Amino acid sequence: MNIARRTAATFAPLAGALTLVLAAGIAQPAAASAQPAAADLACPPVLGICAYDVDDNLRVLYDDEADIIPPIVRAANHSDDPWCFYNWFGYGGARQELAPGQVADDFGFVVRAARRGPCD
Questions:
Q1: Which residues neighbour 69 within 8 Å (Cβ) at sequence distance 6 or greater?
Q2: Torsion of CA 113, 99, 46, 56, to 10 degrees
Q3: How far apart are CA 79 and CA 48, in angstroms?
Q4: pLDDT of residue 44
Q5: Are 119 and 96 in contact (CB under 8 A)?
Q6: To which H or E segment does residue 6 belong?
Q7: 87: exposed, middle or buried (Cβ count in 10 Å: 0-12, 13-18, 19+)
Q8: What is the value of pTM for the model shown?
Q9: Does residue 83 or residue 29 have the better pLDDT?
Q10: Which helix (H) or strand (E) holds 24?
Q11: What's the order of all strands across the beta sheet hosting 103-104?
């Protein structure tokens, strides 16, 4: 066997392993980004919050709301500002902030109040 054939035979299995490692590395970040884009939530083009309540009715928020009835369970922030969502009326209890373009498919609680701005 000449040197070219031995070199090719030696590195051929390594090339296949390298391809698998690279493919696994490329696929992993795509799988790790599980959060959908704001466009994935069925929503009209608004500059506000597109939300769905516990009965799956669409609701759009433009201003702060201290008393949301029925409560919201998922939302997409289509505004240019962060919004803070609370599980108690009057901006209390557990809270979660949504940055511009961010989606919450499940807050982990029902939202009973929301206001523009970061969570304090």
A1: 112
A2: -50
A3: 5
A4: 85
A5: yes
A6: helix 3-32
A7: middle
A8: 0.67
A9: 83
A10: helix 3-32
A11: 58-61, 49-53, 72-77, 103-104
